[in-house]
Input
Amino acid sequence: MKITGYELFAVPPRWLLLKLETDEGTVGWGEPIVQGRLETVRTAVSELVEGYLVGADPLRIDYHWRKLYQSGYFRGGPILMSALAGVDQALWDIKGRHHGVPVHDLLGGHVRDRLMVHQWVGGDSVDDVVEMAAQSRERGYRAFKLNYPREFRPLETPAVVDGVVDRVAAIRDAVGDEALVGLDFHGRVSKPMAAKLLDRLEPHDLMFVDQPLLPEQLDGFDRINSRTSIPIATGERLYSRWEFKPLFVEDAVSVIQPDVTHVGGISEMRKLASMAEAFDVAVVPHCPLGPVAFAASLQVAFCSQNLVLQEQDLELHDPGSSQRLALLEDPEAFGFEDGYVERPTGPGLGIEPDEEYIREKAQTDVNWYNPVWHHEDGSIAEW
Output
């Protein structure tokens, strides 16, 4: 079997899908995307596939991963690793389809039968967030994450700090003590203010605080982690096991949140999960993306003991009306019930993209850019 070609489809709201083709008719799908850099990643995927993969045997996945990562000399970073991730996902999809088994069977077999997923909650006001959280709880979700605070200055007032704590307290009240609640600072908070916020948030029993500092401040994570009882998480803006390595060695995090679409794909995330297990670090993958990325992430989840929870943004509770799940021939492919998704049993990634619908949607303009925020003095704020 040889790789003969590929196609890329940009689809709403901000995703890029890769179809990798072989001479035997078996195809694989991947989701290579950096939100806000779609056209850049599209070019990188084309360079990788055309430069290194056409004519090659798709089943030599680890060899191809090393070749795509190592042979370019300049390596790593969000663009190249996300392009590599989408290619890697498609190669695993081909291999699973070729052997007639789900990818997790090829990676050692499943260690669980179902996996809890968490739901993002947000809104402009506390009332909006509480209403969304309560509705999601009624729909069966048992774990939640919110991004907060918004624009947050390096030195903030007690009133602003109180506002963050009040929002978290309101969500905790809305979902109850039997639910998990995580908070993502999104890298918006300085080191001194992060320490202050973590102290104030401890009574609310958060499952983690994600990105308490920017990835550029990784050397500060061990100090943050050592002074709080709240599990500290990060990882969606780290792109290989080598970038995660100092966090493990320095005992700087309790949870990592790699994204299968940014961290080099299924191959790298599986190795990263094993690496984290040796340091007693849990894995909660980042994945606010499409169903192909979600399916790829699940394949790692079901063969990794320490991968305990999975992010999703697919409206799993109502697949019939989800525009995201409409990209699949079977929108109910993930089997959501009681806050969990069932183990995928189909070959490859376990899903069948609806190619006709994807081609139809690919005719629209989807080159999304994230908003630019400012502080009240006009300076740029972290988004």
